[in-house]
């Protein structure tokens, strides 16, 4: 149960208002959050470097393992943001609390697994990476503290994901800022000692990081529990945990794999670059780090899309999802072009800031001319991947990452290395990025148009009354199915704002006021409908619909149209979807709502009506409602 008298969980704040302003308000704090995270790691490295070469080498050995854990944790954070944002968009208060609470429980289990495995295997693990003797002892000293404090990394990461799902990106940024400042103050104190505080060396660096992470842990839990009331104290049922974890992990696991692929591919590319000499490796390292800095803004925008698209997808605002994706595509392509022009113009100056070796300068000059050409394409892949994560199609993001990193970049770089040395490697990487961006853009094509891409000859759609033979526009439909589909269209002729159009996938789509897609029927008789999560779950509980046969947790349900007996419930579901879209359009106009009028011709249970009332209230509490 949640705390009595506590505020309600946050309502969807990203489903209305200016889209560009919303994305900027999310992306700017996320950019600063990334900067503070980088600063925290750089401060550690700087002070440890003052201890000596062995300590610096020891902390360098920890980077691959820490990055692997961070990749998995960030993936879980993305899954948390995506699942909770969709619940917020759908106005399902119970699901918001349940998902948040269960995400934190999942975090505890992940921590137990990570800490246990890490502590047991760390000596063998780091020895296999090449650490030995005194350096291995230093690594174990540092990582023992790190693994024991893993809870203060994993749980705040998932908690911050839940906070971002509400549309609040500033609070996680402030939490990270305080952590970076505290880490910066404690590092010299604990590493070198002062007065009664002993010099702890590398252990001091680990303890400083642990203290900073502890602050993020406390801050995230306080915000979620007290300010947002998104945590409920109860003993969860196993079925509830399974459902929530499936929602989180269906995005979190692919997102984690996506994050892990990049460092793996980078390691392979570094080994390939190394065959061309130390200067090439140095230039590649500088270029890669500059790439991370140059792409902070597009990467922050990609991260901002997860809560924005998640809320709007949950609220059935496909139009806002499409517009956000179009604006983001335009921005990242322009940013990429600007970054390329900047680097080729000031490349010599930038190179001299990192190295005075003429050979390194020459390789960097090649890097700046070739790789940044595709920075816009690189960012576009991230934008599309973030959108797929937000709508619970994260496996597509993983496939895009695998395509770029493993299937294209490595083979093309190998061929390029053979044909044109270092320049050939750079060209191979750039080609891989460009090809993947084209694939991503085509794959996301259905999301750019909120009307699900009606065919060109059906752009204007057809009114139900004028389409008694709508099935004629579909291929391969049996006569029996034709009669059912035509009966479905004809049965909705009294809905004056309903639009019917043939869509991609050889289906007939139904679109309500404001361009909201209500559903579509396939030639096999599968009627797929889109409802807010609370309505979807209630209909499923009442046995009226089944969850979508292919897409889990994405607001879609299926009703099979096999015979005449299936036609009345199919019509009732479409009318319900139409009335919900109509009510949402009235909310946007600030008009008075009448639930009695909207539901007059529908047979709905008391439980379903209560869910509809709660949904309408969540859309706009200020809108007057009659009945």
From TrEMBL:
Which cellular compartments is it found in? Cell membrane
**Gene Ontology, cellular component aspect:** plasma membrane
Record carries keyword Methyltransferase: no
Q: Does the keyword Transport apply?
A: yes
Membrane-related topology note: Multi-pass membrane protein
Please give the residue ranges the record annotates as the region Disordered. 453-474
Q: Could you tell me which residue ranges the Luciferase domain spans?
A: 515-576
- Gene Ontology molecular function terms on file: antiporter activity; xenobiotic transmembrane transporter activity
Q: Which ranges does the record mark as transmembrane?
A: 21-43, 63-87, 99-121, 133-154, 174-194, 200-224, 245-273, 293-310, 331-354, 366-391, 398-419, 425-444
Q: Major location, coarse class?
A: membrane
Which UniProt keywords are listed?
Answer: Cell membrane, Membrane, Transmembrane, Transmembrane helix, Transport
Name the PANTHER family on file: MULTIDRUG RESISTANCE PROTEIN YPNP-RELATED (PTHR43549)
Protein name, UniProt field? Multidrug export protein MepA
